[in-house]
Amino acid sequence: MFKNLKAKFLHFYEQYETRFEIGFFVGGFCFDILMMSDVDDVLVIVQQAVYLLIIASIIHYETLFASLKWAPKPDGKIAKMWEFRSLIFSFLMGTLLNMYSLLYIKSASILNSILFLALMIGLVVANELPVVKKSHVGIKVGLYGICLFSFFAILFPVIFGFIGWVPFGLAILATLLAFYAQFKWLKRTLTDDVTLFRAILAPGFSVLIFFLAFYFLGLIPPVPLSVNQQGIYHAIERTNGNYVLSTERTWWKFWQSGDQDFKAEPGDKIYFFAEIFSPARFSDQVYVHWSFLNAKGDWQNSDRIPLSVVGGRKQGYRGYAVKSNYQPGSWRVQIKSDNGQEISRLYFDVTPVAQNAGRVFTQVVR
């Protein structure tokens, strides 16, 4: 009876294989959204590590299987699972790619990192294409390498409590060591160095070159930092542990972040407020860059104000910067890491107006 059910299911699976794989991809995406927690959650870190180990094992035995150096015993439990290795790989890889893509998107200034984010989203889609699923193991190793590096690129800032060259360099080194360990593990059975290099080392090195190039170009988002809220305001006061933000924004301009149409009366100051998420025990410094659009149509730097970021608050560390010396026109505020990676940006316009004693502010509590 069970054999008949299994045969029917396998026939049904082969007939609708692509739909099954899409379903597992969507399932992985939904599972990731439901289960996604803070990046410093120990269970989340362990979950990612387990997924990566399972994927590495699938790649290991897939390489040996393709080289006729290994095959599961026909009647064993492994043989039953081996028939569904593509589904397992698709689910785990889809979950990890979705997770890291979401983290990169949260940590990115979209305009600055659009190329990198487009590539990450493209990889999420590519993971589900039949050409990738039936491809040589090297493409799967490339996807695995992206997830492996992303895991370490998030893990080390969580451990050390800061971002920059040191955590990034350690992520590169850890990924290299992981690929080398996989290479040595396979070499025990498969002695063809050329095949191993093409299957494991070449895709791994290509992924690291990709990340190094994008890092030097400043296009990789500074995970795990992300800006949850930001806005321009006329005044900010600290009261009973909260920040009270004063804005003139009318209710129907709900898409704006505070006073992005800043009406500047004589003596007004411009306040920029941000909630910056960082893991617990995180302590680093970011910079608020003010710049304005000059007569030539270029963005001209005006100020660079340091802002300390301390982790531990779930909604994000709250801080603000004040601008007293400004001129009418278009302005831009950017939050950048110490090494120049852009976390967020916000545009606003300054329009001088006459003194109005009767103007009314709406107060927002953060």
Task: Summarize the topology.
Elements: H1 2-15, H2 17-35, H3 42-66, H4 77-82, H5 85-107, H6 114-126, H7 130-133, H8 137-160, H9 165-187, H10 193-216, E1 226-233, E2 235-239, E3 242-247, E4 261-264, E5 270-277, E6 283-293, E7 299-310, E8 317-323, E9 329-336, E10 342-352, E11 362-365
Parallel strand pairs: 4-10
Antiparallel strand pairs: 1-5, 2-3, 3-11, 5-8, 6-7, 6-9, 9-10
Helix pairs in contact: 2-5, 3-5, 3-8, 5-6, 5-8, 8-9, 8-10, 9-10
Task: Kindly describe this structure.
With 366 residues, the protein is α+β, with helices and mostly antiparallel strands. It folds into two domains: 2-216, no CATH class; 226-365, Macroglobulin (MG2) domain (Immunoglobulin-like, Sandwich). Helices cover 48% and strands 23% of the residues. The chain has ten helices and eleven strands. It has helices at residues 2-15, 17-35, 42-66, 77-82, 85-107, 114-126, 130-133, 137-160, 165-187, 193-216, and strands spanning 226-233, 235-239, 242-247, 261-264, 270-277, 283-293, 299-310, 317-323, 329-336, 342-352, 362-365. Strands 4-10-9-6-7 form a five-stranded mixed β-sheet, with no helix packed on it. A hairpin with a 2-residue loop joins β2 and β3. α9 packs antiparallel against α10 (193-216). The chain is elongated, with a radius of gyration of 25 Å. 32% of the residues are buried. The mean pLDDT is 83.
